[in-house]
Amino acid sequence: MSENTGTAPELPEDEPVPAMQQLLDNPFLLLFAGVALPTVLYIVWGVMEIVNIPVAK
Predict the structure, then answer these.
(1) Coil, strand or helix: which one is 3?
(2) Is 51 helix (H, G, I), strand (E, B) or coil?
(3) Is residue 46 within 8 Å of residue 39, measured between CB atoms?
(4) What φ, ψ does residue 17 adopt, rounded to 5°?
(5) HEC profile of 28-46
């Protein structure tokens, strides 16, 4: 009698782990991405807003 545990089959040892899976499996990379990406986006947004201010005469 075989038991079905309901888990997905494991990858063979010789197959590389996909990059997205490595990112999602690492909580420190997720923390870094969650802090760094919004910071960079807000900085770029701020620079764009400053560039759009008209020059006083």
Answers:
(1) coil
(2) helix
(3) no
(4) -80, 130
(5) HHHHHHHHHHHHHHHHHHH
